Amino acid sequence: MKARVFVTLKPSVFDPQGHTIADALHSMGYKEIGDVRQGKYFELELDAKSADAARALASEVADKLLANPVIESYRVEVE
Amino acid sequence: MKFAVVVFPGSNCDDDAYHAAKHVLGQDAEFVWHKDTSLAGADVVILPGGFAHGDYLRTGAIARFSPVMSSVKAFADAGGPVLGVCNGFQILLEAGLLPGAMLRNRGLKFICEQVGVRVEETDTPFTAACSKGQVLRIPINHGEGNYFAADDVLDALERDRRVIFRYVDASGQPTDAANPNGAARNIAGICSERRNVVGMMPHPERACEPSLGSGDGLVLFESVVMALTSSGTMRSA
Question: From the CA of A62, how many Å to the nearest CA of chain B?
């Protein structure tokens, strides 16, 4: 079973990388693009009996390792 | 007095910390590999700078799970002095031994330069021989030194006098221009609630000999020896 974990910086955290990317897009002429925030994406191959179990496992490892709760939040998708 | 310098795969300032403790300060020092669980009777533990696990995922995120860290935590819980320098500070943050987190430098560039660091409090083992307001010239060498914590956490740190070092300009003021990386409130180093665990981004171990640019960092090492000697406490781990 596959779980996808999306980790993003909390809104209160300044994202200099996202800001730089937005600047780059603006200099490329993409004036319609406003704010950009950069995050992380993980694909987990896991052994689980159900989608719920997979989601729970993915959330557990996201809590413990993949995301730093001080500055990041995450969401899990299971297929 | 024995200094234990923990070595993670990717640490690269362990030799400097060892050199400072053993050859400059003249104390006993030894390396402790991250997979060891014994701190071998150390009186002081140093988590050195570098790039543990290549900074993969996040700086210090993987190192915090190393076997040695449960011993470091027990040592800290028993009141033993722990100094986390740069990557060591990042590891202490990820391990929850200090509050907050590190972000990428706001200018995105890796910075390697001498900066002014003001000593805010002298009641920690590592600043006991300093004077309040003393400015030390110490090198920084990092890409992720932008210290972050929620406002209420920062306010509590200030209220409890747990901000130990701040980036300052030539006149000793914590201006924005003197802030190399965007760290909240120019914070360069903090301590734990019990004040025995100190984390700092600048590298005092690389400022222990004037011939190498600055000798201002030596006082942090002298402080811990003085603090342990005067308290009569030689801790065994």
Answer: 12
Q: Hey, what are B60's tokens?
A: 């210090």
Name the strand (E) or helix (H) holding B115: strand B111-119
Q: What is the Cα B183 distance to its own chain's centre?
A: 15
> For chain B, which residues make up each domain, given as ranges?
2-231
Rounded Cα distance, B229 and B129, in Å: 12
- A43, with CB counted inside 10 A (0-12, 13-18, 19+), is exposed
Q: Where exactly are the structural domains of chain A? A: 2-78
Residues of B acting as catalytic residues:
86, 203, 205
The ipTM is: 0.89
B65: chain A residues, CB-CB within 8 Å = 65
The CATH label, of 2.40.160.20, 3.30.1280.10, 3.20.20.150, 3.30.70.980, for the domain at A2-78 is 3.30.1280.10
A44 and chain B in contact, CB less than 8 A: no
Q: Which of A13, A65, A66 sits opposite B148 (nearest CB)?
A: A13
Q: What is the pLDDT of residues B158-217, one digit of tens each?
A: 999 999 999 999 999 999 999 999 999 999 999 999 999 999 999 999 999 999 999 999
pTM of the model: 0.94
CATH of domain B2-231: 3.40.50.880
Q: Determine the distance in angstroms separating the CA of B78 from the nearest CA of chain A, rounded to an integer.
A: 25
* A-B contacts at Cβ under 8 angstroms: 35
Chain A residues touching residue B147 (CB < 8 angstroms): none
Q: What is the pLDDT of residues B60-73, one digit of tens each?
A: 999 999 999 999 99
Q: Within a 10 A sphere around the Cβ of B19, how many other Cβ atoms?
A: 18
